[in-house]
Amino acid sequence: MAIAPLLQRFVDDELARAPALVERTLAGTLQLLRGSKDGGLYAAERSQQFAIVEALQTHGAAFQQEFVQALSTGV
Question: Is the whole model's pTM more than 0.85, yes or no?
């Protein structure tokens, strides 16, 4: 079933904006994780937080690509 051209333009526009959304989300997450005070965290939790930051820095682009691909497939 074909969708209306106006709806298709909307969907295409939103899909085109998805990479920037993921990029902003990753940047905000990293900023919050880096800027958080360690107060109240156990050593294991600090270690996990560091591992998350490291993984996001290393694999952020791959995450962005996979997210956009999964969103496109789902739509």
Answer: no
CB contact set of 64 (below 8 Å; sequence gap of 6+): 19, 22, 23, 26
Residue 73 · residue 13 · CB < 8 Å = no
The closest alpha carbon to 52, from 25, 70, 34, belongs to 34
What residues of the chain score a pLDDT lower than 70? 1, 38-39
Cα distance between residue 52 and residue 36, in whole Å:
13
Query: Given 3-state DSSP classes, what are the helix, strand and coil percentages for the chain, each rounded to the nearest 5?
Result: 85, 0, 15
Task: Read off the DSSP letter of residue 59.
Answer: H
